[in-house]
Amino acid sequence: LGPRDARERAKITLFVDCFDRSVGGVLERVLAATDHDKLYRASESLVEGLMTLDTWLNTHSADADSEGGGFVFVCGRFTVAEALVAPALQRLVHLPSRLRPELTCDIMAIAKIRFPRLYRWATATLARESVAQTFDIEKTAAVKQRATPFFAAAAAATPADEGHGQRREHGEWAPGTSLEAMLASRVSAVRGA
């Protein structure tokens, strides 16, 4: 898992820093969003973070996995870089749909379409046996709910039938708009710019 040389050590340090700065706090903002304006702002941050990670992986990571299987890790093999960010990646992928079911967000589906390099890396990281075996969604969700009790209240207070995913004037989203729709719209806007 450790770096083989100074170059790999630097690459691992840079990747972990990029991951933390890009998407480290986004999960909290997505889960804590109490209205669609906050949710939209969090989705903008998430899209920008995913794009940053995808760009970093395209620019700095190895082209082939030395362990086989065609997956591409940061250093060409599973290293401490993946081990350090795997828990945050697991929470980012699994907790929004668990704690805020009205969001209907599938980050991996979005990454597969919009950020293919990030998708390959995340899929390989999440599929790693040592990563998968150490994640218990039930316990993680329970701890997160206890740590932030307003999740249940925020989810219960969201109007389900109002708006049906319509975008309002001035960039606001109507209640009922899925995070996936907001992300797709934001990705299109960023890519088009």
Give the mean pLDDT: 78
Order of helices and strands: HHHHHHHHHH
Please state roughly what percent of the residues sit in beta strands, choosing from under 5%, 5-15%, 15-25%, 25-35%, 35-45% or over 45%: under 5%
What coarse outline follows from CA principal-axis ratios? globular
Counting helices, strands and paired strands, the structural category is mainly alpha
Q: What's the alpha carbon Rg, rounded to whole Å?
A: 17 Å
- The amount of helix comes to 55-70%
Continuous helix count: 10
| Unreliably modeled segments | 64-69, 159-173
Largest sheet: none
Distance between the termini: 39 Å
How many β-strands, per DSSP? 0
